[in-house]
């Protein structure tokens, strides 16, 4: 089977034939499913959560699909907000967990994930803070609301007195919903009514074979929404699935169509690729499929023109460290990620200036600004992350040359931790002094009095720390060049 065409009726995989247990489903998702069911609606888990549960993995989030219309969902859950423009869907809030509840989509509806979510502040890239009252766990108390005739507020929709959709351009039935989804593995529906899985596309078989297969004609579906190419790469990296050849074939030709995707959406996808715990493998897959050039052309160009460079090793090592942090449930930040990704472009810009300026703060900051500007042509980088990148790079010379008690002030800098992590990485790759990096490590471990002593001991160091392996705070892709920091023109 090369093209996965959804069948008219699903194959129903009964509870005894699959391994998806309610013990592994978020209790809040179960609450939502049960309440929809008790309200007389169909309610399914759908998407990545069913796929991940079948694979024995812990799902990142739980998405629900139902035949209840958005306004009907809203009536069932007080802790609920409707979002989306053309296709409205509901977010049900349980503290920090959000269960997304979507009405089945008709053939004309946008695909899940295609419409930008409006409560994401595109300047900030982060969901707006919810008021405390909205975080309350109101869904615990059962709502005994009779199903009343539903009045449509839009001429696009018509429903009968039971809420059944009669005419609707946007909302549809489950068998139409299947067509709006991307890959067969993402199109399995777990039915809360009897705990069976509905499979219209042989998705369970593909999950078992670890195959990523597009639903419908791959080229058409990639053209409809080029982000699906990045999603394919993400699932290849994250799940270790192989992309089925017919699905993979159009990517080479269509990857440039990603240039037409809104920058904010590419930013979101980039975070999913690199901050989801599989960043290093996402990087390899994106490069191998030529997709890095479509989202971060300057990064790809630097790496292509510096094969096997120290910068590439630094980037990969940094991504691996980030993956380890995700696995250990430690926080990760877009700021650090973009410092890694833009390291090459920043270094490339610095290298383009006369060597005597390479280690000047102004050169470093200008290079950061230019690298961010160039990246912004494709992907938005919200200001506070780009400013963070700038601060991380600006702190490198200060960290490399701690002088007296002023060094202690760097510890208080809001970006100290990220800058220190970058210094460690640079030291590991021979781009900064390991001894100085170790000094900062020790400094953080000792008492305030000892800190003072350690700082005093560095007071007379002059412009170079002992054992410095190059005094530059600037990214130094080429090894072997030793330069004095801000020590006058042509110091070497
Ligand atoms: P993850 O593990 O990252 O959560 P996921 O498959 O659940 O992976 P989501 O972005 O959470 O991905 O989307 C949920 C579901 O919505 C997907 O499984 C898929 O069925 C559908 N979907 C999301 N984005 C798209 C898209 N661009 N085109 C088609 N279907 C999509
Ligand atoms: Mg998901």
Summarize the structure in words.
This protein is an alpha+beta fold and about 500 residues long. The protein folds into 2 domains: about 10-215, Beta Polymerase, domain 2 (2-Layer Sandwich), CATH 3.30.460; about 295-460, cca-adding enzyme, domain 2 (Orthogonal Bundle), CATH 1.10.3090. The chain has 22 helices and 14 strands. β7 (about 120) and β8 form a beta hairpin. The chain is elongated and about 80 Å long. Residues about 120-155, about 460-475 and about 475-490 have low confidence and may be disordered. Adenosine-5'-triphosphate binds near residues 48, 61, 181 and 225.
Short structural description:
By secondary structure, the chain is of the alpha+beta class.
């Amino acid at each position: 089977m090369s093209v996965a065409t959804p069948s008219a009726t699903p194959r129903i995989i009964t509870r005894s034939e699959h391994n998806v247990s309610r013990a592994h489903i978020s209790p809040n998702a179960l609450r939502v499913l049960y309440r929809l069911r008790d309200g007389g609606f169909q309610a399914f888990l759908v998407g990545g959560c069913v796929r991940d549960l079948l694979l024995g993995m812990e799902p990142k989030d739980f998405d629900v699909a139902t035949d209840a219309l958005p306004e009907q969902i809203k009536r069932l859950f007080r802790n609920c907000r409707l979002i989306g423009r053309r296709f409205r869907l509901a977010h049900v809030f349980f503290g920090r967990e959000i269960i997304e509840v979507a009405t089945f989509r008709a053939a004309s509806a946008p695909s899940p994930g295609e419409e930008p979510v409006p409560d994401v502040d595109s300047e900030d890239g982060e969901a707006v803070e919810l008021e405390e009252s909205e975080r309350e766990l109101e869904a615990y108390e059962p709502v005994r609301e009779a199903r009343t005739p539903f009045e449509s507020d839009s001429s696009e929709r018509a429903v009968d007195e039971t809420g059944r959709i009669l005419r609707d351009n946007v909302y549809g039935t489950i068998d139409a919903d299947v067509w709006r989804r991307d890959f067969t593995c993402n199109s399995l529906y777990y039915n809360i009514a009897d705990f069976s899985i509905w499979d219209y596309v042989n998705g369970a078989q593909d999950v078992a074979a670890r195959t990523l297969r597009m639903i419908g004609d791959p080229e058409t579906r990639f053209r409809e929404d080029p982000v699906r190419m990045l999603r394919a790469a993400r699932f290849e990296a994250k799940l270790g699935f192989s992309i089925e050849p017919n699905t993979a074939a159009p990517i080479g030709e269509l990857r440039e169509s990603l240039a037409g995707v809104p920058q904010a959406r590419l930013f979101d996808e980039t975070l999913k690729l690199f901050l989801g715990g599989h960043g290093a493998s996402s990087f390899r897959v994106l490069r191998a499929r030529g997709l890095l050039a479509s989202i971060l052309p300057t990064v790809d160009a630097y790496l292509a023109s510096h094969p096997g460079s120290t910068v590439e090793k630094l980037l990969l090592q940094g991504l691996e460290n980030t993956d380890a942090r995700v696995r250990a449930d430690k926080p990760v930040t877009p700021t650090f990620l973009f410092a890694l990704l833009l390291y090459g472009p920043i270094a490339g810009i610095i290298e383009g200036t006369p060597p005597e300026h390479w280690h000047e703060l102004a050169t470093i900051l200008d290079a950061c600004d230019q690298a961010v500007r160039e990246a912004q042509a494709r992907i938005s980088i919200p200001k506070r992350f780009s400013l963070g990148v700038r601060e991380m790079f600006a702190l490198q010379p200060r960290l490399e040359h701690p002088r007296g008690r002023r060094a202690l002030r760097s510890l208080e800098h809001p970006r100290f931790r990220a800058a220190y992590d970058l210094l460690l990485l640079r030291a590991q790759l021979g781009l900064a002094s390991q001894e100085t990096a170790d000094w900062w490590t020790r400094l953080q471990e000792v008492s305030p009095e000892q800190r003072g002593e350690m700082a005093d001991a560095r007071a007379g160091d002059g412009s170079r720390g002992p054992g410095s392996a190059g005094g530059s705070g600037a990214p130094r892709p080429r090894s072997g060049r030793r330069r004095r920091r801000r020590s006058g023109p042509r110091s070497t």
